[in-house]
Amino acid sequence: MKDLVELQQLQEKVDRGEASAPERQEFITLLQKAQRHGEIAHYLDRWESEVREEHEASVVVENRVDRGPNDAVPVEAPSIEDDVSRVQRYLGLADVYAHQLGKLEEAQRILRRALEYHPGEPKLIRRLADLLALNRASYPEAAKFYSLALQNDPFEQSILRMLGRIAGHLQVSDRAYGYYSALLALNPKDTEAANFVRHCRSEKPWVLNRQVRSASWTEYLKHPKHEGIMGEMIEVMRPALRQAQPGDLSRWGIQASERLSLIHPKLLSIRFLFDAFGLDTVDTYLWQDGGLSCRFEECTRPTLLVGGDLLAQCTDREKSFLLARMNYLYAKGYEICEKLDTRALAALFASFCALVGFDDVYGANAETEAWKALLEDHISAEAKESLRALAPIYAGAVDEEMLQDWRQGVLASADRAALLVSCDIDEALDTLFRYRNIRLGSMGREKVFANYGPAKELFRFALSEEYFTLRERLGWNLRPQY
Questions:
Q1: 21 touches 88 (CB < 8 A)
Q2: Selection from 404, 265, 269, 253 nearest residue 323 by Cα
Q3: In Å, what is the CA distance from 393 to each residue of 46, 216, 287, 375, 385?
Q4: Are 333 and 235 spatial neighbours (Cβ–Cβ below 8 Å)?
Q5: What is the Cβ-side half-sphere exposure of residue 367, based on CA atoms within 13 angstroms?
Q6: Which residues pair with 203 in a beta bridge?
Q7: For the stretch 358-387, what's the b/e string if a residue is b when 16 or more beta carbons lie within 10 angstroms of its beta carbon?
Q8: Within 13 Å and on the Cβ side, how many CA atoms surround 234?
Q9: Residue 224: which residues within 8 A CB-CB, separation 6 or more?
Q10: Distance CA 364, CA 359 (A)
Q11: Residue 231 to residues 213, 407, 409, 462: CA-CA distances in angstroms?
Q12: Residue 133 and residue 156: Cα distance in Å, rounded?
């Protein structure tokens, strides 16, 4: 009796168009109990028709309103729900099909149609992914939609968990490892993630099957901000910059006896990295006071200084991350982005311009004159000719914001290259924070990553299709280590 009274009250509310999505679901449940199946079909068809007609009406109104100021008759928009309300009604309708009627395919059909009207809507994408994940046969498509949802919120742990599980079931170990490693980075106490990563995480990174001296692969790693005239100027001036700053090991307190061969116990475990990046031709020295840092010096041959803590306290993956990162910067001449802040970098670029007669540019100061004096005896005639073409472009376009973005893009690209080699976002982020003397606790990591640009950018890249595709293309896929 109580159900019948409640059914009647809800039906009146539904007929007046005042029922919320949960009330509609309850209404369908009561109709099921009363075995009034014909009415169920009637109301579902009506609700679906309503949201479709309202969307189409809104499109018509937008087109009319946007026609322009010369329309003779003003058009008043009809009273229709906004996008948020329509999305909620689609979600409610899909829930009725899925949970009250058990018709998952109908629910999916509703959500797919809703996405045609509201492309990219995160709530619709997530709900469709959840429904697809209920059927093993649709796991690949569920993963696609979960990945889309992750673009909106890369720190959503429930999505990372579902992607990790699906990849595991599909035996795509490299992806599963990536997702679980990201989940572990956000929550070091997550048992499921820790167990999977422990099985996959060998003592050292997966051996690289090919050298990476080709520049083609690095194009896929470039951050969107890593574009601009600055890169061209660095390429032109790289030889002069290196000649003007000869290396001095005594400056760093390094003795000749601290040279390290590639078969030294502290380097042997990451020998593959030196071979892959062509670092077997550089002289390598232990830098006792270097901490987690590493740097290149221009001696008789390129010379790599490796910090004492980096060799003594880091895992092989962490060593690989820091060394690959610095090698990327050095190979392209971008190590100055690590050494100089934006203001000092601006002074350097202003000196490039000053060398060819452009003195009044952004960043010019006392340091500019010092750089100019240092470089003018080392710049070649060919480099000067190239600068004459580049300097006017720099002078007319670059300001503080542009230079700061470029510098951040360069460092982000280096972080990406390093992650590609070390392949563990959990260890990579921990290493990045330790390297920059930032303490990373076990709680509240999501806020830390979201508010610290380099971490947020690297986290996003670690979950991107570009990252997984590039690892597969290079043959660096991880396999579980059981």
A1: yes
A2: 269
A3: 62, 27, 41, 21, 14
A4: yes
A5: 13
A6: none
A7: beebbbbeebbeebbeebeeebeeebeebb
A8: 21
A9: 409
A10: 7
A11: 19, 10, 11, 25
A12: 17
Q: Which of 427, 393, 412, 391 is nearest to 464 (CA)?
A: 412
Q: Where are the alpha helices (DSSP H) in 187-289?
A: 191-200, 229-244, 265-268, 271-276
pTM: 0.82
Alpha-carbon span 432 to 438, nearest angstrom:
9
* Closest-CA residue to 208 (of 332, 335, 323, 333): 323
DSSP 302: E
Residues facing residue 260 across a β-bridge: 284
| pLDDT by residue, tens only, the chain of 482 residues | 556 777 777 777 877 877 787 887 777 777 777 667 567 666 666 776 776 666 566 555 445 544 454 544 444 443 344 677 778 878 888 888 888 788 899 899 989 988 988 899 999 999 999 999 999 999 999 999 999 999 889 999 999 999 999 999 998 888 999 999 999 999 999 999 999 998 887 755 555 555 555 545 666 788 999 888 999 999 999 999 999 999 999 999 999 999 999 888 888 888 878 877 777 789 999 999 999 999 999 998 899 999 999 999 998 889 989 999 999 899 889 999 999 999 999 999 999 999 999 988 999 999 999 999 999 999 999 999 999 999 999 999 999 999 999 999 999 999 999 998 888 899 999 999 999 998 888 888 999 999 999 999 999 999 999 899 888 877 777 654 44
Helix (H) or strand (E) holding 286: strand 283-287
Helix axes 191-200, 157-169, angle to 10 degrees: 40
Strand order in the sheet with 259-260: 259-260, 283-287, 302-307, 294-298
